[in-house]
Amino acid sequence: MALKEESFDSNWQPKLESLLWRGRTAGADLIEIFLENTDHLGVLAEQDTITSVNPSFSRGAGIRVFLGERDGFVSTNDLSESGLNLALEQALSMLGLQPNEADYSSFDGLPKLRDFAIAKIQWLNSCPQLKQASERLLYGTNLLDNYGTHLQVRRGSYARDWQEVLVAASDGTYARDIRLNQSMGLNVLATDGQHRSSIGRRYGTSGRPEELLEWDAETCAREVCESAGTMLYADYVEAGQMPVVLANRFGGVIFHEACGHLLETTQIERGTTPFSEKLNQPIAHEAVTAIDEGLTDGAFGSFCMDDEGMEAQRTVLIENGVLKRFISDRAGELRTGHKRTGSGRRQAHTFAAASRMRNTYIAAGPHTPDGLISSIERGLYCKSMGGGSVGPTGQFNFAVEEGYLIEQGALSKPLKGATLIGEAKEVMPRISMCANDLELAAGFCGSVSGNIFVTVGQPHIKVDSITVGGR
Amino acid sequence: MSTKPGKIIELDSKALRDKLSNLAKREGIHQWDLGAACSKDSSVQVDRGEAKQLKGAQRSSITVRVWNNKGLVGITSTSDLSDIGLEKALIGAHQASDFGNANDIPAFSPLAKAPLPNLDRPLRPAQGISRLLELLKQAEAELLSRHPAIQTVPYNALGETNSERIYLNSDGALRQMKRTDACIYLYARAEEDGRKPRSAGAVRLAVGSQDLDIKGCIDEAAELTISHLNYGPIDTGRYLVCFTPEAFLDLIGAFSSIFNARSILDGVSLSQRDSLGSSIAVPFFSLYDNGLHPANVGASTFDGEGTPTQKLCLINQGRLENFLHSEATARAFGVAPTGHAGLGAKVSVGPDWFEVSSTETHNSTINKLDHNSSQETFVLIDGLNALHAGVKASQGSFSLPFSGWLLKKGEKISIEAATVAGDIRTLLNNIEHMESEQVITHNGLCPHVWINGLSISGEA
């Protein structure tokens, strides 16, 4: 099912130029218009039935006006000429500005459109039809039934997010793109008397319409069932300070939460990062090189241009422990001086863009995963991480979904209920070993400009000491 | 729906009904309903005396639900309330109904035309961006002046919203309500030489920005932030813990699937269909859901299916008394809908606003447990963090970072970093004491609640 909206074609250029001109006549330093069409489909399978199909579509604009370091932002669902003019006037009035239509000289017009969307027009139609998607999910929940035991709940879910965006700004930015993000996953609740475990795996890609049909549901179902069975009878972890090994793929959430957010210029603006004055200084162990980029083919956090019309880039954040770069957007550059990195991102037109991560990961190192585990006498192996967050003083926390005790250099019994807590400034220097098995995992990141698609990643890493919360 | 420049988008229920009726007739659709909403928001943020970001938004949304000739249900949502948007939504919902779940078909709520409760809330006029900015600048300046260690208020905002919501169906039901509300939050960051930065804050809600208790918000943010400056590590161990009303309500909310009939039918609740009447908490603990409470700023008189909102007893003196229901779950349980539904092909169910109360008989031992005066050694938890990550609702377990203090003989030391862990079933049965004063918070009404033997992991 495709409920595609009217595309942002060349007919929009005069309307956009008129708005930008009116904004400039008012004395604004810069006006940016973000237009958006979305088409979403969510499908849920429970046990052996499709229980929910949720299609939705939306259309809207976000207009942002800068004057000095201040900005006013207005969003609207009304894309009529009057609706957009009203939104512009509201944004201008927030900054004490009014259009002065006698001034004809303040805007030269938009250049030729940089159209990243042109090769992607058929993406939405190439996605699986609802019938195919439903069959695929039911296949997944059926596999869970085959591979699992004690499963009280079996679920499969699929989400397809199609988005067309057009960005026009009075500095000559004029670009259009189409994005397609799809995610699919399986999760279970296993029960046996008072014992319970819930385990899930989710996969996500960008720009690959056929992805759901190519998804390896077999491997996913096997992994979920194996983990649920193992964790069903796991003991609670004993709290304390200990070395941990974090597995690759979604283990990268630790870097994302603990350090990545603190390298966004929004945090410098707020004065909430300990790293604002640390450029070209060591902030992590020399084993750590960390990258944020929007270029990896098919990765969940990849795109051709950011939500401010700037092409995606590869940004080395930390090189051998030394801070090299911050993640910056238009406002971040204006207010902190750090050059934009193609990282201005937002969930939708209802949010102003902010400096946000894309595909963020710690680079591979020289060790083997076994080498990391064997270096620990007693500690925790975090095979699968749940969610996490970082507070306003840089303190982070992560739930460990699937953990194992490390005893005398080898994995022993499964452990549940662990939470890792600490502060980036203290933990980053303690990442002493990186393995050679870098892998990425899709995720969602919620922050100042809404929920966005991101990738986290890392090889297996060893943290020499971290606080593990438990019972 | 009409869009007029310079005015808020307004929902015209009659026009909406007529358009949907005509479209449905054309498509051969005999049963449909819809929920629609629109709002206009303004908000400001400041940074050390300067406007940082000023925001405005006009939002609209509509969800159309359609029953096809086989009786199966499909939905579609859109933000486009134009005639074309409405048509697409109706056709999309009709297409989606081919994939409706034959085992769980929602129907119109039998209470969708029942009288609504009276909710006496004024609609307050918007003060506008300039006034909001002025107020927030003053509030920030006042908070910064309270202590030399408070150097910034990195998370702050003052906003006001007016909104309208409609439910109507092909059977003639029509629900409509307008609301205004406003919110301010101030989260300060304080730092002293050689010490780690500390942060705390406060939130206030009201029906209009002119009604916000801004001074109370400043006072609370300042007091909390200053109280966390004197901090230290805590030893890992089991402690007597006192939850503030805010923290306890957050915890109960995170485990609300216990009372949620949808979660029970889906097999992800700790409760079963036959759990009503069973003991799940100490006998002096009672819990109500009361979306109509006068202090609930976000109160609504009807839910997503048009069912009237009501006060509902969930736990009566320790025993499960009722579950929260939509139309479909109520039908499955053989009871009436309770007014806690969303709107969808698979209708979600959720609580409105909790009231926690005690029928405890006080004695000399428990009277010692007062968070203001107790000489016991205990941990006072005033905020739970990362609930999305640290709560396993289907398992009953939680492991959560928190902000709070260790109190020893009345001396109060902020806890540097720690987590609290446990099981909600054990916790509800280990409530040692509930203080007599019920405190109004933006999540509900609740006293301070004392639990013995909770596990705390610290960095000491």
Plain-language structure description:
The complex is a heterodimer of chains A (471) and B (460). Chain A has 471 residues and is α+β, with helices and mostly antiparallel strands. Chain A contains eleven helices and 23 strands. In chain A, strands 1, 2, 3, 4, 5, 6 and 7 form a seven-stranded mixed β-sheet that branches. A six-stranded mixed β-sheet of chain A has the order 12-11-10-15-22-21. A five-stranded mixed β-barrel of chain A has the order 9-16-17-19-23. Chain A is globular. The model of chain A has no long low-confidence stretch (mean pLDDT 94). Chain B is α+β, with helices and mostly antiparallel strands and 460 residues long. Chain B is 21% helix and 36% strand. Chain B has ten helices and 21 strands. Chain B is globular. The interface between A and B is large, with 82 and 76 residues.
SSE topology:
The complex is a heterodimer of chains A (471) and B (460).
Chain A: H1 12-25, E1 30-46, E2 49-67, E3 70-76, H2 81-94, E4 114-115, H3 123-126, H4 130-147, E5 151-169, E6 174-192, E7 195-206, H5 211-214, H6 217-232, E8 235-236, E9 240-246, H7 253-258, H8 265-270, E10 290-293, E11 314-319, E12 322-323, H9 330-336, E13 344-345, E14 354-355, E15 359-362, H10 369-374, E16 378-390, E17 395-407, E18 410-416, E19 419-423, H11 424-427, E20 431-434, E21 439-447, E22 450-458, E23 461-469
Parallel strand pairs in A: 4-6, 8-18, 9-16, 15-22
Antiparallel strand pairs in A: 1-2, 1-5, 2-3, 5-6, 6-7, 9-23, 10-11, 10-15, 11-12, 13-14, 16-17, 17-18, 17-19, 19-23, 20-23, 21-22
Helix pairs in contact in A: 4-6
Chain B: H1 13-27, E1 31-47, E2 50-67, E3 73-78, H2 83-96, H3 129-144, E4 150-169, E5 174-190, E6 198-206, H4 214-227, E7 231-232, E8 237-243, H5 245-254, H6 261-266, E9 285-290, E10 311-316, E11 319-320, H7 327-333, E12 354-358, H8 364-367, E13 378-384, H9 387-390, E14 391-392, E15 397-408, E16 411-415, E17 418-423, H10 424-429, E18 431-434, E19 439-440, E20 444-446, E21 449-458
Parallel strand pairs in B: 7-16, 8-13, 12-20
Antiparallel strand pairs in B: 1-2, 1-4, 2-3, 4-5, 5-6, 8-21, 9-10, 9-12, 10-11, 13-15, 14-15, 15-16, 15-17, 17-21, 18-21, 19-20
